[in-house]
Amino acid sequence: MAAASLLINPSDFPSSLECYTTGSAYLPTPPSTSPPPPQVREKIIELKTIELPSFVTGSAQALMQSRIAELAMTGDDEGAFFVGDLGEVWRAWKSWVTELSRVELFYAVKCNPDPLVLQLLALLGTGFDCASQSEMTAVLSLPSPPSPDKIIFANPCKPASFVRAARSLGVDAMTFDNTDELLKIAKLHPRAKLVLRILTDDSKSLCRLGLKFGAPIETCPSLLATAQSLNLDVVGVSFHVGSGCKDPQMFDDAVGRAKTVFEMGRDKGYSFNFLDIGGGFEAEYFLPMAKTLREALDRHFPVEMGVRIIGEPGRFMVSSAFTLATNIIARRATAQAVLGAAGVVVGGLGTPESEKEEEKAMDFMSASIVSLNGSGEGSMHLGDAGSGEEQTPKVMYYINDGVYGSFNCIMFDHQIVHPFPLTLNGGASLQPFPRSFPPNVQMEEDLTVQMGYGASCEPASVWGPTCDSIDCVRNVVMLPRELEVGDWLGWGEMGAYTVCAASTFNGFNKSQVHYTTGTDPVASAAISRVLGDAI
Q1: Among 90, 197, 338, 504, which residue has the least CB neighbours within 10 Å?
Q2: Is the pLDDT of residue 51 over 50?
Q3: Which helix (H) or strand (E) holds 399?
Q4: ∠ at Cα 274 (108, 302), nearest 5°?
């Protein structure tokens, strides 16, 4: 794609400076011979085409094990890494277009702005839900970008510079939920196609976005009247039932509210033809949600109404597509356990006195873990599984990614992540993936026990690499005793709200991504064909 230009209109800025007085003191007036103030130059931002990474074919497990073996042979940095299975993205797309054929897919970029995921979806014809200038430019900088009318600027409260950028990039569709936003848009992007974001019931969702966005129904008539007085083009309604919705009926209720606002728009002289049903979709609940939505849309917005309908799935598209591999960089356990397992005999170890001191140290370590957040609430705050609350960890494992990196999802997205061994005995034994990855929620039985490691497991805690004590990935989880420093732990369902919010706090790098097309021969061939010209 030829480089595009982002132009900022000089008319958006004052053409001259004004002089103000305070009492009798006047600011000095320039002499009449002074040159006029310089004209404000147009600000040009070049959109440089993104270079896409390469990918291979085969299973995520095979790619992950190959990478681990390569690192072991070369002695290179044991950095944590993701495997991105593009076949999973493809399957999610196929499921969406099959179950919700009336609803155009507009992927929520904020969930995971991975460039290869964005390019694959763009080539499949999807649109994009962008919330910032950076997200819009990322999408439009792809080797095969979508047209600007396949982007909705779905942030109801936008910086003025972002509105200018949207205008210059040709992105006209954008949301609003307040009067100030209307005044801003009327000044900076009067040609915008506006979508009124309404408040819905999101009480059954993981992240309640209604706490921040959405106009209550009773305020909609006045907002529409204001838009009309400003000669703004309001084309429809949007809503969001909250990220990670657990109750399909929330969509039924929201669609009914949207129909009410459509009627309000008609009363104000508008002819709405656009409905944005937002996100909130999870794989675990997708089929019943899709069924509820189909019925609600057919009831309130039958096909003959001619309403264009879009949806903004995020985690549904990418959560299962990314698996994380982390290396155990350190371990804290009793000296007797560590040295005994290594076959090392040290004088004084194994005596009643030494064992008593070791037990005291481990008891103190355990007490520290369960009180991280004060009053014994640390485990709930940091994603402890209910099955381990009555247990105390016998060993502490330190890995090379944590809550300041990919596991920020624990803090910000309320995830409870589930480790499984990729290697045992210091890397000597490669271990298989589980048959399927559970969602990142509390489970009665840890994943390792479900995989058959139960007899060899002991309660452990898992910590990130930084020097902050809040960097705890799991307080208590059952892990095999054979784990040693240098072994690898895997983590499934890590594609949503992970790498996108990772930082380099304390000087630790973000985890890199390696890609495969997966094992499904149909999907793999299709992905290779679709992406082939773009790489």
Answers
A1: 504
A2: yes
A3: strand 395-399
A4: 110
Which residue, among 279, 274, 241, has the nearest Cα to 174 in the 3D structure? 274
Measured distance CA(395)–CA(369) in Å, rounded: 11
DSSP string of 45-101, one letter each residue:
EEEPPPPPPP-B-B-HHHHHHHHHHHHHHHT-----EEEEEHHHHHHHHHHHHHH-T
Interior angle at CA 80, CA 333 and CA 68, nearest 5: 90
Closest CA to 394 of 365, 426, 430: 365
Specify whether the CB–CB gap between 126 and 93 falls below 8 A: yes
Higher pLDDT, 327 or 507: 327
Phi, psi (rounded to 5 degrees) for 199: -85, 135
- The separation between CA 8 and the C-alpha centre of its own chain, rounded to angstroms, equals 30
From the CB of residue 405, how many other CB atoms can be counted at a distance below 10 Å?
Answer: 29
Between CA 194 and CA 310 the distance in angstroms is 14
- CA 239 – CA 251 distance, rounded (Å): 9
Q: How confident is the model at residue 413 (pLDDT cuts 50, 70, 90)?
A: confident
**Common-topology check for domains 113-313 and 320-352+365-516:** no
Strand partners, 45: 6
Which DSSP string do the residues of 85-144 spell out, in sequence order?
EHHHHHHHHHHHHHH-TTEEEEEEGGG---HHHHHHHHHTT-EEEE-SHHHHHHHHTSSS
113-313 CATH fold: TIM Barrel (3.20.20)
User: Residue 130 corresponds to which amino acid?
Assistant: C
Angle (deg, nearest 10), helices 220-229 and 249-267: 40
Q: Find the mean pLDDT for residues 347-368.
A: 54
457 is catalytic: no
* CATH code of the domain occupying 320-352+365-516: 2.40.37.10
Beta pairing partners, 84: 322, 515
* CA-only gyration radius of the chain, Å: 27
Q: Where are the domains of the chain?
A: 113-313, 320-352+365-516
Which member of 130, 220, 467, 472 is catalytic? 467
Q: How far is CA 305 from CA 262, 298, 301, in A?
A: 12, 10, 6
Q: Tokens 């009480």 map to which residue?
A: 203
* Residue position matching structure tokens 């058959």: 452
Mean model confidence pLDDT for the chain: 83
pLDDT at 337: 58
